[in-house]
Amino acid sequence: GIKLRDWDGGDLLDIVGQDWMGWQEDTLAKADAVVNVVGGYTEQREMAAERIVRESLRVNPTALQITVSPKDDELRMITPGAESTKIARLKQCEDLVSVNCANFENMRLEANRVDEECERIKAVIYDRLK
Known about the structure:
Elements: H1 13-16, H2 23-27, E1 33-36, H3 43-59, E2 64-70, H4 75-78, H5 83-100, E3 104-109, H6 114-128
Parallel strand pairs: 1-2, 2-3
C-alpha cells in the first residue's frame, strides 16, 4: 500500500507549528517514492521543490521522485492570471527534478479528474517500483 506524509512545511512554522520538523529523517529515509504535489504557483512552489529535491538527495537519493503539475492548457482554469509565469515556474520545478534525480517522473494531470489522476499516480509508483 501507499502511505502519505504531509509536506515539508518549509518556512511556514507559523502555520504548521512543529509538525514539519524532522520530516526528512521521518519520511524520506524510509520512502520508496516521493510525490511532490506542491500547491500554489508562486516562487514558494520552487522553494518547496528545491527543499524536497535537496533533502531527498541527502537522505535517500535512490527514491523515485514524482512531480505533479497541471497541464499547461488547463492552468488558466485552475488559477487565472500570469499564465506564462506559472508555466515557466512549473517547468523549472520539473527541470530541477530531471536534472538532479536519477529516478524521476514528471506528470502533468488533468484538472477535475481527481480519482482518475490519483490512479495514474499510483500506477506510475507501482510500475516504477517493481
